[in-house]
Amino acid sequence: MQKIEAVIQPSKLDAVKDALLEVGIEGMTILEARGHGRQKGHTEFYRGREYTVDLLPKIKLEMVVPDELVEKAVQAILSSARSGKIGDGKIFISKIDEAIRIRNDERGPSAL
Amino acid sequence: MHPRIVKLFLALVLCTGSLFPAFAQTPAASAGSTADQLAKLQTQVANAQSSADNAWMLVSAALVLMMTGPGLALFYGGLVRKKNVLATMMQSFAMMAIITVLWALVSYSLAFDSGTSFIGGLHHIFLRGVGLVPDTDYSATLPLQTFMIYQLMFAIITPALITGAFAERMKFSAMALFLILWSIFVYSPMAHMVWGKGGFLNASLGGRFPTLDFAGGTVVHVTSGVSALVCALYLGKRVGYPKEAMPPHSVVLSFIGACLLWVGWFGFNAGSALGSGPLATSAFVNTHFGAAGAALSWMLAEWIRSGKPSALGGISGAVAGLVAITPAAGFVQPMSAIVIGLLAGAFCYFMVIKVKNWFGYDDSLDAFGVHGAGGTLGAVLTGLFASSAINPIFKDAQGNTLPSGAVDGNWHQVLNQLVGIGLAWIISIVGTLILLKLVDLTVGLRVSRDQETEGLDLTQHGEEGYDFAS
User: Fold this and answer.
1) Who's near B234: CB < 8 A, 6+ residues apart?
2) What are the pLDDT digits (tens) for B421-432?
3) CATH topology of domain A2-111
4) CB-based contact (8 Å) between A48 and chain B?
5) Pairwise CA distance, residues B20 & B37, whole Å
6) Residue A44: closest CA among chain B residues belongs to which residue?
7) Is the pTM for the entire model greater than 0.95?
8) Which residue windows are coiled coil (chain A) (predicted)?
9) Are B351 and B298 within 8 A, CB to CB?
10) Which residue of A has its CA nearest to B355?
């Protein structure tokens, strides 16, 4: 089992969700986040005062998937979230030791 | 038959039936003498005019109240950080309650009783003698209570305007005490001098230096704006200003508030005609043109300087224009109103964007930059543009109309305006300083540093404006 965390542009959420569903990912958690990488923020003016907004709104997706689905999921995100411009986001992948379904104690990949 | 049609038919029958007796009465009524008839007719005409004026003035009073709540409350509330939104709105709302009671107890009398040249007497405390019969010095057609309640709405919004200068850092208790004292010792005398019987600056009731102030350029905007500057200087900056970013938390709220102010201002200015005649139309038209001119010039100035016309700039400009046209509303031609608006938008933009930063004071929501600066400019321009063709306010002993402002050739009026403005500045600076000192020594003005960081909503009122978790 592996965990995929992807930070994407909020406008790409629907496309990414559809693409993940198509490759068979059934569950995910979505967080509204703020952040920036190499992409710098923008400036706003209120009554002549300049404000730099460097933390921009982003969406973070989290999902834990069986090993054989990881590459498909990554490809799905890459193809659906990419605009080619700076600020498209990042994907992080890590190992997961255990998954437990709260409803019935089920453990391992079948709990996903 | 359909029940609705039956009802309609019945209504028609009733209407026609009630017409016939009226026809029958016509010959009977002509039996009285011509003199009686004329007297009756005169009373009816007077009653009709009184009703027409009263209807407009009651609507105007409600419009002016709407300027404070929700207008100003939203305008200011949107400009602060979200931890202070309720506290800021409460400062405006509190005036609606506090000043109302104060007005009945003592301050109406201090403003509008005859008294001396500088302050009214105490004959009307507890609203004694303020009934439904007109006071002909103020208005021959309005019940005195209509005049009283209309003037109250001005007394409410004026201290509420000051709250923009000390937003996000003053104790609620200190704010309430200070503004009660301010209303008694600064607003009432100033209102008396300009609008009260025998007032030092009163243009229509024989003042020493007749200052033209149609709807409160000096009484409302110069006093509140200049006092706001004194407050900002006395209280000092907010914690973190100007290093920390303090952008408005919701320009949307401010936008709604400013548009309500624009609409409410028709009551403020056109209502100041104290009647529903042509003068009200003139003030209404000028108010609108002034607001539009200033919205335009602020946005253009911003567009040129920072590359984009902003929503906040547009609405700030509109308010600046409304402020500047206030003293001029019932005195100038519509084209002059546009010019006054255009000048006010650019001037207030310059005051808010440049001058504030040069001196470094924290007039948090620009109460001085908009009301103090716009009010002063408007009062000067009123002396320039006042036209006797619109409002023949000055007359000689024979009743002939004399020139009003500089456009009529009466340059002396500009000097009179400067006397009025100067007096408003002095009474505001001195009065506000003394009262702030007094409140500072007794209850203390500012919240603690920790409370300021936590926000006034929680620390002063135990509430939060936005609780999305529940």
Assistant:
1) B432, B433, B436, B440, B445
2) 999 999 999 999
3) Alpha-Beta Plaits (3.30.70)
4) yes
5) 23
6) B247
7) no
8) none
9) no
10) A48
